[in-house]
Amino acid sequence: MSESEIDAVVFDVLGTLVDEPAGIRAGMRALAPSLDAPGIERLLSLWQQHIEDEQRRVLDGDRPYLASDALDREAARLVADAAGVDDPAAVAAMALAGRRLPPWPDTVAGLARLAERFPLIGLSNASRTALLGLNAHAGLRWHQALSAEDARTYKPDPAVYRLAVTVSGRPPERLLMVAAHAWDLRAAQGLGLRTAYVSRPVGDPPTSADRFDLYADDLADLADQLDKADGLSG
């Protein structure tokens, strides 16, 4: 696959470009400074499981759509209860932890490099408001940032990926979806997008049955591969 075959690059955000668990852990340390490391990991699992379960309920039609902000508030209350914290201000601050996520070391430079050659589209399950906050906090550079809130559902619903196709004005096969989550890429493939897996410590690794167009160690490696492929095709 060469650069000339791609008209725009679509990026998952949470986990792919920012270290979501690290940001949530930081919020938990602020919520309950006395928590030890195992305690934080237990609460992190509680948070992540709630978000995953409730997004799945929305996808399955068992719950009306709620933006990610509402699910984060629910998760924050669960975590605070489990930690024995009943300070409303502290719980409210915990609910906003998902907007203060650190970028991976290669993210900012990698996006800047790719942005010189492609339109970049962020595509996230985060709400519009949360996406604005986390993009600003992490210094993410976009030409367009799209929230699943615009489709009133969550990835991997095809309607979310169609947002990127519609905004780009290009056929799906002219878009490259980049993610650290194999489930995300499989869903994008189902709609006809090209796919690139980027390895992250918190991602969902591919299985032996997966066949993605590119596999990269980080964004610099992804850019290098696109450079090399374009050079060979030229």
Structural write-up:
The protein has 234 residues and is of the alpha/beta class. The chain is 49% helix and 11% strand. A six-stranded parallel beta sheet has the order 3-2-1-4-5-6, sandwiched between helices. Helix 1 (20-31) packs across helix 2 (37-59), helix 1 runs antiparallel to helix 4 (88-95) and helix 3 packs across helix 4 (88-95). The longest helix is centred in the N-terminal third of the chain and has 23 residues, at 37-59.
List the helices and strands and how they pair.
Blueprint: E1 8-11, H1 20-31, H2 37-59, H3 68-83, H4 88-95, H5 107-115, E2 120-124, H6 128-138, E3 144-147, H7 158-168, E4 175-179, H8 182-190, E5 194-198, E6 214-216, H9 219-233
Parallel strand pairs: 1-2, 1-4, 2-3, 4-5, 5-6
Helix pairs in contact: 1-2, 1-4, 2-3, 3-4
Rg over alpha carbons: 18 Å
Please tell me what the overall shape is: globular
What letter string, H or E per element, gives the SSE order? EHHHHHEHEHEHEEH
Count of runs of 4 or more consecutive helical residues: 9
Regions with little confidence, pLDDT below 50 for 5+ residues:
none
User: Distance N terminus to C terminus?
Assistant: 12 Å
> Strand portion, in percent?
5-15%
Count every beta strand, where a strand is a DSSP E run of 2 or more residues.
Answer: 6
The largest pleated sheet is described as: 6 strands, parallel
Record the strand order, biggest sheet.
Answer: 3-2-1-4-5-6
Mean pLDDT figure: 95
Helix fraction, binned, reads 40-55%
In short:
By secondary structure, the chain is of the alpha/beta class.
Relevant terms:
alpha/beta, globular, 6 strands, single chain
